[in-house]
Amino acid sequence: MTTDVEMKETQAPSNSISNGNSATLLQLKESASLIETGAYAREVRRIVRAVRLTMQVRRKLNTSVLSSFLSFTLAPGSEVYSRLISFLPKEDEHEMEVDTATSAPVVPAKHPLPELEIYCYLIVLIFLIDQKRYNEAKACASASIARLKNLNRRTVDVLASRLYFYYSLTYELTGDLAEIRGNLLSLHRIATLRHDELGQETLLNLLLRNYLHYNLFDQAEKLRSKAPRFEAHSNQQFSRYLFYLGKIRTIQLEYTDAKDSLLQAARKAPVAALGFRVQCNKWAIIVRLLLGEIPERTVFMQKGMEKALRPYFELTNAVRIGDLELFKTVADKFSSIFKTDGTHNLIVRLRHNVIRTGLRNISISYSRISLVDVAKKLRLDSPNPVADAESIVAKAIRDGAIDATLDHANGYMVSKETGDIYSTNEPQLAFNSRIAFCLNMHNEAVRALRFPPNSHKEKESAEKRRERQQQEQELAKHIAEEDDDEF
């Protein structure tokens, strides 16, 4: 009796593994069926749906599932099949074979479509990256890019954009990102000539990321300014572009434009992209501090971001108080985090803002104060703090940061009485900026609306639709034959 119980316990996991592999293989075949249907009907949305379904099962992929899928989709003796199989690791002895009896009713293609071939490259590359086999992933990505250069089909654009992303990711993970910069520029030029707008978006973002990774901000701005502009096709790619644009504008001291780009990138980013939204908020907080603004407390209390934004919360508190010594303590305490985020150089710029904030608090609190006391309250640690305090006060008065006068002979700073702000144009300007923001958001929402094609026309019957598709296929075949004849 005991042996029977032990046998049942050892067989249960194997059955569950076999069922899981069969379900994963079935989902991959369904995605391949969608890609095949979309390629023949020239419907890109079907291919987009297939890619989304693949991303849902990427954690369930293993060697046996991929081997069975490649054998099903590609011809076993073909060059593509042999190359992709060589990238896969050897199967584990404990892995169960996949049951192909419950597979989707799709006929295996002896001569697979280019879309299916690129799809096989994509899933193998994703599997290698998830398994942290970066050397094999680099080889697979390079082979897929070489194959993509020979294809010019609109139905391949969605798959190609994903391959471009993982191609750059593999080289970034291995620290060889500079090696593919020339290849990315070549691919961007090819995508522009082929009017592949989705590929242009993806490659432009990859090139900007490549330049910013090595702090080449001038080259990134030159590329961005000269790249062709068109309406965004992918919300994710547009969010990345706005984030990179915000970083470039921040380094160029254009803080107002940088703030708008970073906040817009954080709003447009998907909810699931938590790490990306955290980075956008980190840079936006620094830019707002450089502009003299103090972010609201709710910014640091967003769900899932409290721990990541804690250093920036303490930094904001030091800037708000105007305490230079506290600012230095926070900067030294979290210096490693700031260097990792790439914001350490920007935090060095904040020192002047901290001094100016402290000086503004002093001018509000005292109608007249000596420069010696100003230096003590600002905690200036220079060799001649009084002279430095005088120059800081003079510069703040000239820039309009404080409303005061400087008595050089007696060494005093005399603050003027604060007037009624409603007698100025500031309320009108603030109200105007809010109206402009609301109108801009409304215009973007209207542009983002999608309508079905030819919705104003009479719907065609199923018979007419079949005739139209047949005519389009015959015309495409005739054009392909003419192109073959030219060679």
Question: Describe it for me?
Answer:
There is one protein chain. This protein has 487 residues and is mainly alpha-helical. It has a domain of 132 residues. It contains 22 helices and three strands. It has a three-stranded antiparallel beta sheet with strand order 1-3-2. Helix 12 packs antiparallel against helix 13. The N terminus and C terminus are likely disordered.
* Helix-and-strand structural type: mainly alpha
Based on Cα principal axes, name the global outline. Answer: elongated
Largest sheet descriptor: 3 strands, antiparallel
The count of strands amounts to 3
Mean pLDDT: 78
Oligomer: single chain
Strand content: under 5%
N- and C-termini, Cα separation: 76 Å
Q: What level of helicity do the residues show?
A: 55-70%
Count every helix, treating DSSP H or I runs of 4 or more residues as helices. Answer: 22
Poorly predicted runs of 5 or more residues: 1-17, 93-110, 483-487
Radius of gyration (Å)? 30 Å
